[in-house]
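new request in #modeling-help
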Amino acid sequence: MSKILVVDDAAFMRMRCTKMLSDSGFEVAEAADGNEALAKYRELKPDGVLLDITMPELDGLATLKELIKMDPGARVAMVTAMGQQSMVIEALKTGARDFIVKPFDADRVLAAVKKIME
Amino acid sequence: MIQDVAKTDIDLGAWEELMKKGITNAISGLSQMVQKKITVDSVLISRIPAKEVIDLVGGPETLIVGIYLNFSGAANGHLMLAHRPEVAYALLGMILGEEPVKRNDISDYELSALSEMGNITGSFFLNAIADTLGITLYPSPPSVIIDMAGAIMGIALAEILQESDEVMVVDTVFTTDDQSAGGRFMIMPNESFVQLSQHYAR
Amino acid sequence: MTASIDVNISVGLGELHVTKDPDAVLICYGLGSCVAVSAFDPVARVGAMAHIVLPASNNGANAILPVKFADRGIPLTVEKMEQAGAQRSRIVIKIAGGAKMLRGVTAGSVLDIGERNIEAVNVAMHKAGLKIHAQDIRGDWGRCLWLYMASGLTRVKTAEQRIIDL
């Protein structure tokens, strides 16, 4: 069973995402901020990561940079309300494989997970 | 489409158009989140004393649910969603797909749903501005505060009052089309944000 | 016997109100990081309330709001009270506010305006030769401060209607 790490500072978003993924048969782990995300990635070695951008202390882009440094093969999709073009470009350049703008529905999330796992 | 913008003696031209774009996108994001059509009832752009800004939300001792965030990057400023508690709880019910929360002891999970509402509204506002001008504007994570309006608005007002005695405010009042909820979305920009119109006027 | 009618006077951000009216009630509503300063001379029956917003002016520019900044606002408050007949040595000072409304801000950092306001008010009081007799400060909640001229009573109320008499 594939394991996905969901990273978002809002408990509500983590819950939503987790439900959508586990309903589709994924194993899900959660992290509430960038530092916790890095720690959990090291510990659990998930098959994919859904990563928010706007978070306290270490934001999503900084976390993405660290994840790619840690594991150049990391499969990350950004899931964020911050859909500015400059952000999308920077995230994809840094190594994110997909970019979802919130609010999202289950289909969009599942499509992203499929895409990053290819 | 926002047609009428009430102003008080300010000629902001291009910046006003930019604000309308941002507000339209912000309300669109909020609408997607609560899964209801939302109408903008009014937009007021005004440069007024700090205490009048607080009067817009009912006065300094009025209890409100405030979802506050600020932004930085190419410009700085403050954003806030403000609602009377019962209205905030009605919106919360829509987001959670439940009946409006009626009690006063709102859970952390429910607070995070409100926080996310602020995140989406604020980010969508900034996204429209940023992409129109080809710049980046970074929102902070939101804070949900349930307390007296004066204490919450003071977060933005104190920062603005450091440089000026008056506050520029863009105040948008909106309602869901089924009249079941609404609120206000307030933008309190720093001077750097007002100056962005220079770019737009190109 | 005629009942006196309380005259509620709301003191907004950066405002100062000085009075000798025994029916007056001076009030600062919705204090977050702001600090409300209540000053009362019980002999001359002169009272004042100042709504302080910021610790100090950066550039020395004159603000229209008279007591926006603690460093200018406190001496101005004392001066106005003395002009109204108060004696500095008799003035009783009580303060409220200085909360940290945002969780993300580190307590005591430059972004903690509430804490900086408390410090600035203390410094200004010391410079003016005044002592702070009582205070209800800090925390992460809003407050209202009342000064009842008839009795000199200074009272704090929170959003949950918790009452603290200073």
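bot summary: The radius of gyration of chain C is 15 Å.
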